[in-house]
Amino acid sequence: MELIFVSLASLLAGFVDAIVGGGGLILVPALFAAFPTAHPATLFGVNKGASIWGTGFATWQYSRRVQLRWQSLLPAAVAGFAGAFAGAWLVTVVPSDFLRKLLPLILLAVLVYTLAKKELGRVHAPRFTGLQEALIASGIGLTIGFYDGFFGPGTGSFFVFLMVRWLGYDFLHASASAKLLNTATNLAALILFVSTGHIWWHFVLPMAIANVLGSVLGSRMALKHGTGFVRVVFIVVVSALILKTGYAAFLAP
């Protein structure tokens, strides 16, 4: 029963994650509910082991229909990998509890800004080219990658927002680009978890298949309905993240 439950959660997480990020909002709580006595690192390892396949397939799906700016995104993905690995290492020596209270406030600011700027992310008009775009994208990859390794919730949504706000992408191109960077950060964290033995392969394999199926459905829906649809899902996911992280930070016993 646990395998069926977490596989269905992985399917839904892959679907949401492919559109705008935030799959961990679904899958991580499901894993903790199904295995309350398991070591948290093992459950995070299972989450990364399943979700990396979904983000990888979503990247491939988007790349066939959306023109990705590879010359900027590939170095950004490398920076994201390095940042995530450094963050994952740091969390083993420094507690990340202070971020619990700060995160919902940051997400609230992102939501308010997105709602106030009604035209934000509706038109794809990249602001930079060449080396300048690569450096800014790499800065985003390094910073959010570090955050993903150190803490994690909302990583995909932060990638999308910063690409829309700073790089001038529309929500569809930003979501497609974020998948590549998120795959890199997931890989860094997964390598760390595997190297320390914190993974259950017998759960990862069926969950990965479910995550890929959800990812294919989500990316197809995003491509079919376009930027406006992705923007709405972004607002919904960020709102849910605010509620979840706010409860965990200020109300949970």
Write structural notes for this entry.
With 253 residues, the chain is an all-alpha fold. It has helices at residues 2-20, 24-34, 40-65, 70-90, 98-116, 130-150, 155-167, 171-195, 201-251. The model has no long low-confidence stretch (mean pLDDT 92).
Brief characterization of the structure:
The protein is mostly helical. The chain is about 80% helix and about 0% strand.
Which class do the helix and strand fractions yield? Answer: mainly alpha
Question: What fraction of the residues are assigned to beta strands by DSSP?
Answer: under 5%
Low-confidence stretches: none
Instruction: Provide the residue-averaged pLDDT.
Output: 92
Radius of gyration: 17 Å
Question: Count of DSSP E strands?
Answer: 0
Distance from N terminus to C terminus (CA atoms, Å) equals: 28 Å
Largest sheet: none
Q: From N to C, what is the helix and strand string?
A: HHHHHHHHH
What is the overall silhouette? globular
* Number of contiguous helices: 9
Portion of residues within helices: over 70%
